[in-house]
Queue: 2 jobs
Job 1
Amino acid sequence: MSYEPVLTARIGKIDPASLTDYEAHGGFQALIRAVELGPGRVVALMEEATLLGRGGAAFPAGIKWRAVHQAEGPKFVVANADESEPGTFKDRVLMEGDPYALIEAVILAGFATAADKGFIYVRGEYARAYQRLRHAIARCYEAGYLGRDILGSGFEFHIELRRGAGAYICGEETALFESIEGKRGYPRLKPPFPTQAGLFGRPTLINNVETLINALHIVLRGPAWFNSIGPAHSPGPKLYPLSGRVQRPGLVEAPMGITLRELIEEHGGGVSGSGEFRVALVGGAAGAFLGPDHLNTPLDFRSLASIGAALGSGAVIVFDTSVDMKPILQRIADFFAHESCGKCYPCQLGTMRQRDIIARMVAGQGRPGDLQLLRDIGQTMRDTSICGLGQTASNAILSAFELKLT
Ligand SMILES: Cc1cc2nc3c(=O)[nH]c(=O)nc-3n(C[C@H](O)[C@H](O)[C@H](O)COP(=O)(O)O)c2cc1C
Ligand code: SF4
């Protein structure tokens, strides 16, 4: 099926610094249309489109937009641009190549929800994206897209850019709020949910960068167009960051639900290294390994959930038959032990115990019962951790043992 990219259409074709270039390539048309339609209709379009959040949790965007739209102000919009999931670089490409699109999307979300202010929380390591966004925000103030009476609508809106400091946990929405508020990035207990009490305790719409940019196209092309792409249960354009042992690694835009095989063979040019597929890590470190039996699995939220995996950010890292998987598992276990924020014991202790057990197994000093121990730790973290980090910290490792990768 031929597919015309939309999310990445301008990337590589426009000068990311130039507002006039952005405008000449359809930029700010969605905001102009949104102002014509009015906030209520924009929110209705978002509800009609089955846009599931692209940050990993797959929560319907329209429900959040409606809740914040209806809430009493002051309220906020936050773009989650922390993007720290291993193997994930989709938001980076969007922000570096088309920074005005994210700014337009945040203004549009602010207009639809009658928010007072927007924040873009950018991963600390993304220096180029940060600089480009900073420049673009300044240009938008000069041109009247930000500030008072935007496009003559009477709507006033401001955007503040914030940088993370290298903590994976600060991508978790409530830890991100804490970080913006100047505190240590500890996740909060939910409920209350961000739409009720988010940033500074106020109703907050938080969406991933890719989710927000999809909103521009939903407003411009309509929900019917959006829902016609990919499977009905989770439609729309999708970005798949593809890396590892493929001939052509990079960011792939495709209809949601292409298969793992299509992604690797058609978009990635096939497996490199030995040329023989061994396994792919789908969804980043919080995801799961999928072997050759799952090459025909559609890469969408529901299909992956039905086999006990997760789409997460959409990242796919491919391994060929020549790769020694032991250091890979060690790296994943180290990652979670290092990034656990320590707020709750199951994750604080569980990720450390998991790391230590993997270390001795990798060193050839595994003990009888180690695998069962890993399963017990995984189950405990999944069932009792406060946030998604602990709840997913054992997924990839346990899936590797299921596939007998070591
Ligand atoms: C440990 C952890 C890290 C996360 N990192 C990110 C991230 O970098 N970017 C992101 O958009 N969502 C991240 N999330 C998900 C957010 O908590 C939240 O679900 C998302 O920002 C909501 O946006 P969406 O509905 O558009 O997906 C993370 C979640 C967890 C538990
Ligand atoms: S699950 Fe882990 S990262 Fe999340 S709050 Fe608990 S200790 Fe922190």
Job 2
Amino acid sequence: MPRVRRLLKELTNAHGPTGFEGPVRAIMRRELSPLVSDMKTDGVGSLIAHLVGSAESPRVMLSAHMDELGMLVKYITPEGFVKFQTLGGWLDQGIINQRYVILTRKGTVQGVTGLKTPHVMSAEDRAKAMKRDHMFIDVGATSSDDAKGRLGIRPGDPIAPDSTFVQLNGGKLYMGKAFDDRVGLAAMIEVIRSLNERRPPNSTFAVATVQEEIGLRGAQTSSYQVRPDIGINLEAGVAADYPGISSDEAQERLGDGPGIFLHDASMLPNLKLRDFVVEVAQARGIPVQFEVLSGYGEDGAEVQRSHEGVPSINITVPVRYLHNHNGVMNREDFNGAVELVSEVIRRMDAKTVADLRSFD
Ligand SMILES: [Zn+2]
């Protein structure tokens, strides 16, 4: 399997629910370590890799988050069913009747969020969506003692969606879980690989953050450690090119290139930086698209308001069906994002960044 597809497969298949990003961090460490001069972590687990360019400054922070939507074990019923606390923005109907893995001290435990059969439901009940408070994970245990003893499940154990990566029917589309934001991490690795071959006139920090899905926490701590002059966040964009979703809700389409956020609930990009990115895209013949969302939230917002303020932008690879067990992305959009971000960083010398940071 070619390198990038293999990387996306490994990153998306890895289990890293919010707060439990260890398996993803291990992949990031392995991939980035041959490409950068040093790596460290912040106090909550974000990985900060430093690529030394031909100049020590300006400092460019490239970020993407390692965590995916998940859960943790709340308690086990006397009958051996697992009740859970959700982590991140789940939809109730996205949780139910799906496969999960619980990461225990004894290894991986498989289970399913059981859903009552329609055979026994009234017409009224069939029309209702089940609420998460009534859900549980069936791990095949015979009792609470069996779940704790034989399977090793303890309160606080992380739970991740169980869904595997596939190339969708041989085409350019890939299907899998956690493209939000493993697609950003894979792009970050490829950008650093490209920058390692042709060094930029700056210091670039590739930061794989933790705990984005519950409030951008790792981006806050890591941006304080990095002290960037410019922030570029890589995220999964909201594709709106399938039945039942409208351009009023989101505007990105698979295959139309990387996206640039112009508004989301967490931040506005720096417009000079937007124009700079668009100019680079045009010069390189890379198609780009724009996204204006009323909701959402991303790590760029924390980078932007760290220290005395940092011109920042959020660049995306569009993904369908985010925050569910299966998303769909287009490989061409990924390639465009890697090339665009690599070229943008390669042009970020002291003069360019001083101009981007000037409000005169
Ligand atoms: Zn995300």
